[in-house]
Amino acid sequence: MKKTINFKVNGIPVIQEVNTKQTLLKVLREALGITSPKYGCGKGECGACTVLMDGKSVRSCIILAVEADGSAITTVEGFQKNGLTDVQKAFMKHNAFQCGFCAPGFIVSTEEFLKENPTPNEEEIREALAGNLCRCTGYQNIVNAINEIAENRGGGK
Ligand code: FES
Ligand code: FES
Question: Of 76, 103, 126, which residue constitutes the final position of a domain?
């Protein structure tokens, strides 16, 4: 069954006909060409597909596109108003990714987390990002990057 949804993606109004069984991730990647959210586990467990829906992180692999009707979706592309963001630059500086597959999910989760908690300690950073899995880095470089972002934004402990 098909349905037409109206939503905003990275600030741009989108009207899109979708199959009612299609996930938001599939529509973002395949219909709209937004490829930062990745298909990892497809079960809501790895965080590679994380996007913001009305400012809250969701796993786009387990959200149906029809559930996004009327919402505002933000992906990594939506944060890049003037080139790379401070989060992206800090991830690069600290080698916070290797293969990079997990990075978009971490970056979206980091943006959400630092908005809610601009002065996190290491334990809080680790706890907040526990739902994002990385097979390559061992996490310490990611924590270091987020600490520096918080400090540069006037937070950090
Ligand atoms: S691909 Fe969505 S959580 Fe793993
Ligand atoms: S950098 Fe490879 S999974 Fe995180």
Answer: 76
